[in-house]
Design brief:
single chain; alpha+beta; two-stranded antiparallel sheet; 1 helix; 2 strands; elongated
Amino acid sequence: MVFKIVLLFLVAMGLLAWFGKMHWLGGKRLTRTKCRDCGRYRIGKGECACKGGR
């Protein structure tokens, strides 16, 4: 009985993760690119922190 509950919970969490990755259902796609100057990751379309973005 406990095994069935845990299994159903894991399946439900997997379905939620799968739906979250579908971009046509409202999931957001992050663009991660590296800065050419400092090598840190930039998330989104803004400038890097080394260039005075923040």
